[in-house]
Design goal:
Number of strands of chain B: 9
Strand content of chain A: 15-25%
CATH superfamily of chain A: Response regulator
Oligomer: heterodimer
Number of strands of chain A: 5
CATH topology of chain A: Rossmann fold
Strand content of chain B: 5-15%
Number of helices of chain B: 16
Shape of chain A: globular
Largest interface: A-B, 24 and 30 residues
Shape of chain B: rod-shaped
CATH topology of the largest domain in chain B: Rhopdopsin 7-helix transmembrane proteins
Strand order of the largest sheet of chain B: 4-6-7-9-8
Order of helices and strands of chain B: HHHHEEHHHHHHHEHEEHEEHHHEE
Distance between the termini of chain A: 18 Å
Radius of gyration of chain A: 13 Å
Number of helices of chain A: 5
Order of helices and strands of chain A: EHEHEHEHEH
Strand order of the largest sheet of chain A: 2-1-3-4-5
CATH class of chain A: Alpha Beta
Helix content of chain A: 40-55%
Radius of gyration of chain B: 54 Å
Number of domains of chain A: 1
Number of domains of chain B: 3
Distance between the termini of chain B: 124 Å
């Protein structure tokens, strides 16, 4: 069964790009555009819903800072083991530190990677 | 026996044929009234002059009345007695009326209305008009050296009773209607004033109706009684705006009381004893008053300091509030700045990410087969996009530095690890150019630096990346050493030595500036650079209180960059 990536991202073009590249790389991809939806999904996971193999979280979401989603995921033992990559176009030393403190595994500046490179990073993490 | 047989008194008023209580009841009362009248009139300069003036008038009139009364008691000349007898009643009415007037002005703090003045004036005029007539004094009585009083005396009694009851009614009303804070003071004043007028006028009226004149002298004790209340008001409530210490008032009262004993002491032994007591009380009283006054002065000073301290504290708090507001304002600006940076970053990078993503996917053939030419041109687009991204990144880094958004989080940072990490990242670039890129570490462990690892990594990356960029032959050697800086502080020295294009003296001096103009050689080697990376590196190192400098033997002879950081 294909490993599942939960993409939390609101830019339609980037959703399009990441979905197709990740699918090509052999993952199944679910997308959520809003932080609130992501939080609801996490709550459902705590109740026993299926968990993704990885979450890719954007920081600037329409309704909140993605860091809140990360916090929510790491707060509960049921979801804290899901590997999280922060993928954003907003780089800020303090924010990066905060994400790493919250046990995000990587802080990725989107412009610095091609979608292929990103897929490669994810693959490496999940295979390794 | 006729009263004229009695010998004439000394100085008009001193005689042995009268009861001794007479002098005791008369003279001290008169002196006390006079002293207090002058004292209040003199001290009460800030308040209404009319209050002090009225009280002085009461006390002087009272004093004259006392003298006149003593004259009546001790003399036997009919002319004198008839004259004094007429005058003393007039004085008595003045005392009653002016006590009423004084009470009103003291409590209301304003003058009495003209209508009332006119009314009382007419009452007085009626009396004065009848004084020369036979309604006043009927005849001189030889048995007691008195006079037989006429009908005018009933009018006189009427006025006395009128003024006394007027005062009593006014004061009782005043007590009832006064505010809570003033009620106690009004009550004390009223007891004193009513007590005085009731006993003084009352005793006079009763004495002259019954012709038992000795009653009269008891009425006089009303005056010291009234004065005692006034002194209490001064001490307790600072009445008349006078500051008087309780101790002062008490000592003066004791001196007066002791002194007044001289008026009825007959026995020489007692006189000596009383004299000694009087002197002792005066002397020790003076000492006591002095020490109490000093203590109170100190207390007042302490109070003043406390008040000043309170004011200073208030000022301090006010300035603290201003500072806090300024700080909040700064925080708001800081917040606005960070919002701006965030929005700029997001909006500039997102389209670039999409562009880069689609281009790379197209090149990869995700959208179908691409012919060779198209693939090459898409490759150019991709490269251009990357350059643009790099440019935007640098631009954003500089704005962040200028807006001062990035706050350093200084902690123990392993420079060894950071260097290894950076070298690993830049190594592919060096390999591509077939130049060497080595890292020389000292043997054993190296102390960590006190630094923000993310920022230091950025600075070192810029330095090493820069060196690789401008080196075509040879390579770049990075090394780390522990050393001692100024004041014996432990330091870490990072050296980046390349065999690249080198710099002129001017370039060495300017290389970390924002406006650095790269040399021809640099442009030839790396057409796209703008020398911004070194500026950012220098800003970061300076923010860490570290040192950064460059050396070069000249153009074509390679460059060396040095960074010194504070170690733990």
């Amino acid at each position: 069964m294909a490993r599942k990536i939960l993409l939390i991202e609101d830019e339609p073009q980037l959703i399009d790009i990441y979905t197709s590249v990740l699918k090509k790389a052999g993952f199944s991809v679910g997308t959520l555009k809003y932080g609130e939806d992501a939080k609801k999904r996490l709550a459902a996971m705590r109740e026993g819903a299926a968990k993704p193999d990885m979450m890719l979280i954007d920081l600037i979401l329409p309704d909140m800072n993605g860091i809140e989603v990360l916090e929510e995921a790491k707060k509960y033992s049921q979801t804290s083991d899901i590997p999280c990559f922060i993928s954003t176009n907003y780089s800020d030393g303090n924010l990066e530190r905060r994400c790493l403190e919250l046990k995000a595994e990587k802080f990725i500046l989107k412009t610095n990677y091609t979608p292929g490179e990103l897929a490669e990073l994810i693959k490496k993490r999940l295979d390794g | 026996m006729f009263c004229t047989d009695i010998p004439n008194p000394v100085f008009f008023i001193f005689s042995n044929s009268v009861p001794h209580l007479l002098y005791f009841s008369h003279i001290p009362s008169a002196i006390i009234a006079l002293i207090l009248g002058f004292f209040i009139f003199n001290k009460n300069r800030s308040g209404s002059r009319i209050v002090g003036g009225l009280l002085l008038f009461v006390s002087i009139t009272f004093f004259v009345w006392i003298i006149f009364d003593l004259i009546l008691w001790t003399n036997n000349s009919s002319n004198l007695i008839i004259f004094i007898w007429s005058a003393i009643n007039l004085l008595e009415m003045f005392i009653s009326a002016s006590t009423l007037y004084f009470s009103y002005v003291f409590l209301e703090k304003r003058d009495i209305s003209f209508k009332i003045k006119l009314f009382v004036g007419i009452l007085f005029l009626i009396y004065v008009a009848f004084i020369p007539t036979s309604f006043n004094l009927v005849k001189f009585t030889l048995n007691d050296c008195g006079v037989e009083q006429g009908l005018l005396f009933y009018y006189f009694y009427f006025l006395e009773i009128l003024f006394s009851s007027w005062l009593a009614i006014y004061l009782i009303k005043k007590i009832i209607t006064s505010k809570k804070g003033e009620r106690a003071m009004t009550t004390y004043f009223s007891i004193g004033a009513i007590g005085f007028l009731a006993s003084f006028s009352g005793a006079n009226v009763v004495a002259s109706i019954t012709e038992r004149w000795e009653i009269l002298q008891y009425g006089l004790f009303g005056m010291p009684f009234f004065m005692a209340f006034l002194v209490y008001l001064i001490v307790r409530y600072k009445a008349f705006n006078i500051k008087l210490l309780g101790a002062e008032a008490l000592i003066v009262a004791m001196i007066v009381l002791t002194g007044s004993q001289f008026f009825f002491i007959q026995n020489p032994t007692n006189r000596v004893l009383t004299t000694i007591t009087f002197v002792l009380i005066t002397f020790f009283g003076w000492l006591l008053v002095k020490s109490v006054a000093r203590e109170i002065k100190q207390k007042e000073e302490i109070d003043r300091y406390a008040e000043e301290l309170g004011q200073a504290k208030e000022k301090l708090e006010a300035s603290y509030r201003v500072e806090k507001q300024a700080k909040e304002e700064l925080e708001r600006i800081g917040e606005a700045k960070s919002q701006f940076i965030m929005a700029t970053q997001h909006h500039l990078r997102t389209p670039l990410t999409a562009l880069k993503g689609y281009l790379s996917m197209a090149i990869e053939g995700d959208f179908g087969r691409v012919n060779k030419i198209l693939k090459e041109k898409l490759g150019f687009c991709f490269e251009s996009t990357n350059r643009l991204i790099k440019l935007v990144n640098e631009f954003l880094d500089i704005s962040k530095l200028q807006l001062g958004r990035d706050i350093l989080e200084v902690k123990e940072a392993s420079i060894t690890e950071i260097l290894q990490d950076v070298i690993a990242e830049v190594k592919p670039e060096a390999d591509k150019k077939s130049i060497y890129l080595t890292l020389g570490l000292p043997p054993g462990s190296v102390a960590p630096a006190m630094a923000d690892p993310i920022k230091i990594r950025e600075a070192l990356y810029n330095l090493i990346d820069n060196a690789v960029k401008y080196t075509e032959k040879g390579g770049v050697r990075v090394s780390l050493e522990a050393g001692k800086g100024e004041a014996g502080k432990n330091t870490l020295l990072i050296t980046v030595v390349d065999t690249g294009i080198g710099m002129s003296k001017q370039e060495v001096a300017d290389v970390f500036g924002r406006q650095f103009e790269r040399g021809k050689e640099a442009k030839k080697v790396y057409a796209l650079g703008r020398g911004i990376g070194l500026y950012i590196a220098a800003s970061i190192i300076k923010a860490h209180k570290g040192r950064i400098w460059a050396e070069s033997l000249g153009q074509g002879k390679g460059s060396s960059f040095f960074v010194e950081l504070v170690a733990k």
